[in-house]
Amino acid sequence: MDFIDRLSEKMDSVTSLNLTIAEITVFEFTRIDNTPFRAPRWCLEPSLWHQWDTSNITSLTLNCVMHEIPSLECVREILAGCQSTLMHLTFEGPVPAPSSTPLLPVPLPALKLLRIFYSNEISGLVNLIHAPDLGALELHDTCMLEFPNMGSTDEVALLDALRPSCANLVILTITGLVGCPIAHIDTFYQQMPCLLRFFLFSAGPQYEDALFQTTARDEGGPVVFPQLVQLAITHTCPVGLATLLTRHNAVPGLFALLDLQISSRQWGEAYLSGSPLVAVLNRAVEGGMKVTLVHEEGLMDDLD
Q1: Average pLDDT in the chain
Q2: Are residue 264 and residue 161 in the same domain, yes or no?
């Protein structure tokens, strides 16, 4: 297309680019210096992903449009080009097919934010990423949200691949993950001693159980996420929430949980059933915790 030819002539002065086709972001980057950027020649043929020069960029979004899905080898090459500078990485859409040969992970020492919206097997792509200083992680199984019986089947491999990058994680968002045994979730959570904020939406009950520690295996054991100050769990039924709040705010040396978001439906069910959660939440509010009730349509009320 002539557009890319004209754009290429001006790339020496470009520091930020967001390329969108049919309201879908195809490629987005922000560069930290004045290094010339080489744009590929875009035509009606499938995109030549390997022609994008990603050296020195700090923010990268890859969205696989229609059938133009890059190979894992190509994704690795893209990441390797900016491995020392990349700070924010987002991947959206179908994941490339597994590679026929093993691929070594790319060290991304500057990466702080990783966001993945996926609709099929994701662990192969995640295995390409090693981010020891990652601060925020978002995992969204978009296929499960639209087709509940067709979620990803490789959650064990996904969590195992992410564990080495979670030691310094402070923000975790999980949406739509449903198919992982609790033992693997326990191990995954234990890798995050510094976690401050946890957002858990439309996840399987085993993700709640690993958080709430409601089974006998955890009696008297360490509390998961000892520094947690904010929890949002608005699309589930957290039967162990009262126990979590009681333990978390009673154990010496733990951060106090200051901010809680639950759905108004959960609050209504707890109130009508006489659940101990009502008394626990009332005491928490009196003690200074902010409790927000989220309605189905997204409106919020403070519990006071």
Answers
A1: 77
A2: no
Q: What is the 3-state secondary structure (H, E, C) of the chain?
A: CHHHHHHHHCHHHCCEEEEEECCEEEEEEEECCCCCCCCCCCCCCCCCHHHCCCCCEEEEEEECCCCCCCCHHHHHHHHHHCCCCCCEEEEEECCCCCCCCCCCCEECCCCCEEEEEECCCCHHHHCCEECCCCCEEEEEEHHHHHCHHHCCCCHHHHHHHHHHHCCCCCEEEEECCCCCCHHHHHHHHCCCCCCCEEEEECCCHHHHHHHHCCCHHHCCCCCCCCCCCEEEECCCCCCCHHHHHHHHHHCCCCCCCCEEEEEHHHHHHHHHHCCHHHHHHHHHHHCCCEEEEECCCCCEEECC
Hunting for tokens 């039924």 — which residue is that? 237
Task: Look at residue 195 and tell me if it is in a domain.
Answer: no
Mode of pairing for the β-strands spanning 24-31 and 57-63: antiparallel
Which structural domain, as residue segments, surrounds residue 273?
Answer: 208-304
Instruction: Judge if 154 and 294 occupy the same domain.
Output: no
What is this structure's pTM?
0.80
The separation between CA 282 and the C-alpha centre of its own chain, rounded to angstroms, equals 31
For 243, the token pair is 């126990």
How long is the chain?
304
Question: What letter represents residue 12's amino acid?
Answer: D
How many domains does one find in the chain? 2
- What is the band of 154 on the pLDDT scale with cuts at 50, 70, 90? confident
Evaluate whether 148 touches 167 at the Cβ level (below 8 Å).
Answer: no
